[in-house]
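Q: Structure for this?
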Amino acid sequence: MQLNINGETFEVDDGDGLRPLLWVLRDELGLTGTKYGCGAGICGSCTVHLDGVAARSCQTPLAQAAQAAIRTIEGLAQVQPDGSVRLHAVQQAFIEEQVPQCSWCMSGQMMTCAAFLEQNPAASEAQVLDAMQNNYCRCGCYARIRKGVLRAAQLAVQPAGTA
Amino acid sequence: MSATSPRKWKFSRRKLLIGLGVTGGALAVGLPLSLPFARLKIAGMLDSGSAPAGTMPKDPFVWFEVTPQNRVRLYLPKAEMGQGVHTALAQIAAEELRPAWEQLEVLNASTERGFDMGTMLVAGSAVVSSLYNPLRAAGAALRLMLEEEGARQLGVAPAAVTAGGGVVAVAAEPSKLLTFGQIVGAKQGAWVASKLEPQLRQPAQFEFIGKPMPRVDFAAKITGAALYGFDMRLPNMAYGAVARAPRMGAKLLSAAPGTARSQPGVVAVVATTEFAGVAAETRAQAVAALDALQLQWSEGDVVEQAAMEAMVTVQPGAGTVLQSAGSVTAPLAAANTLRAEYRTPFAAHAHLEPQAALAHVLPDKVQVWCSTQSAGSLRADVAKAVGRKAAQVEVTAAYLGGSFGRKLNVDVALDAARLSAAALRPVHVSYTRAEEFQHGFFRPPTHHVLQGALDGAGRIVAMSHAQASGNVFPALVGQLLGADFGAYRGGLLRYNIPNRQVTSQPVTLPVPTGSWRGLGLLANVFAVESFMDELALAAGSDALEFRLQHLPEGELGERFKAVLLAAAELAGWGGALPAGRARGLACSMDAGTVVAQVAEVSVQGARVQVQRFTSAVDCGVLVNPNIAAAQTEGSIMMGISSTLLEEITFSGGQAQATNFDRYPLLRLADAPLVETVFLQGSDVPHGMGEPPLGPVAAAVANAVFALTGQRLRSLPLKLA
């Protein structure tokens, strides 16, 4: 089975098509930036994009993911023609606001925010914050997540699918 | 080089039976002191944060590596679990070594780097305060060596050069310079420590300390490249799964491999009455093969909630006296006294990265990578688990995806080592979320009886705090000293009250209990500071005025006064509020840091919403204001989550939660606006990882009372 991840093609074992995308990414492909937190779709740590839409990879069967363009945290920044890396607006904002602490949840936070902003570039502040409702942060970075996502909304956001 | 803590440590360290501080998990036992006196001293030590540091390696090359490519690597014995210690320690080290910030790389030291067990422990909010002077001294020692060698290479006298920005330059002719890398690259022969005593910079000269330097770990974390224990991989690695007891306290009566060895992908099976587990090619195969083991478990404990609450109940006269001034007996027997009981529940750590470890057991060596707060003690535990000498085991801490005390004891590393020894391959073991909820340990429940007596002028003449708590430290510690110093952390009465008594009663429960951020801090301050408001009400005083009237004498009183007034001013204490809002105040001292906080709450139906949360924090020298603010914000959010939502209950011998559906955490929408101001009432740095958690629950409960008239004395707060 072939997967399209961050614009590259990966070959994975056909095997069980119901196995969660999360473990295929982490254990089979070594893309460990996508994190496991609850395995039940509650905490949001495993959030990736499927065709530009935020999805919980712990709840996404492999066979379903194979139908979509998958984007993970490793593909959020863009590698420029000269080899330099250009951070996504969300990553830039999260560094500027010094948002994370342990950062285990932050891949999911940033992927959730990036998908929403790419689809809703004119969203209001309330809408942006509402999009972040279902991502847990146990370190309690919420005050800075608020600042980070609002800052990200201000920064120029690339249209979806240009990674 | 100084190898001692910057803080005052009154016991002679040579006379200690067991070294290292109480907050570090081990116990300092003052042999020459009588036991009751030692108890009081150690109790005070925890609050003031004056635990002794571990012993420090004197060699600056244990800490630093300067490469000919002009990189400066800093090897730290303290794990980064989100609290920002790698950045704060890098600032402290850089202050005296004087590199360019950009050339600094921060790495975790493995256990082979030469640090002792205590130094490799992250606990008690003591990382920055315990390493503040040793690390500066190490940096200064290396800078002197670079200056002396640089001067030699430049052909001038050592006194003619000065280091800064990663170069050694001739002071009178700054264009004559060598980078640190050039000096190291051109060095012939062995390095020799300078004979000069390094001069440390004065605060007015600080270049890095006190500045909001950006976090050194964010470049890797923001791109998903940072490696946590759960992310560790080696070629040919197998995945492990471990059979877990069906009930608390159940033990394996018999264990046999059954058909596990012939299950798909299985590479090793261990089936003993000590441990039963499987290693397989994939995670799913390992979990599936567990069912094929033949295991017989003992009944275990049918742990029931009500029975445990009954166990954790203050028994009159049963506790150990931890604080005593005057006599409370007569005044508390008189009229005009107040008595109230408080309770806090079991709680889970709920760190989002479940515990995880990779172990590779080789014939002559064992390597472990793990999300751990205590690489040093883990080394000995792994050695024991696989029958090796500790010297053969190397443990490297990975980034921790949260911990909050849970990853002080990472059994998962022992699981991985046992399975790797059987599989003859590297094995990775990680907990599922259900394993975290069902097979970890918990913050112990507590019960508090507060009593107070007022005089005719509304001053407190006597106050007592009797508390019972499940164990935080192992039961042995409690037996040794008659009290569990983790359990009553934050429970001493700091106010200037002529007659005071604090007693503590450790309780060993049938459920494993242990360290949770701040240990007993949140629970004890919840009880004491809620009761202060009850007394203020009885005295007819404003909560702020009442506290100001009872400040401790001396410097501590001044520090409390300053944070109380600052928090009150920032929060607009006493000022008008929108309808449906009220404020509550609380303060505490922990790990040398004094904190006052004001919560502003509203209520919708039975739901409490914290709208705004204001803190004034005096942690002495502020190493990084941005990180200190982040620790304050995080403590507030975790504290509010614990105050309003979190509770573990047991039924039929198991925790009832298996995932976040039964143990919800605070969400973004419920997070208050936060404002923090820092004061400096001390010339050394104090703890920041836990102290701001102290007053949170009390501040919220006091605000809820002000708004609703309901005095809620149990966590989580539930409105009638």
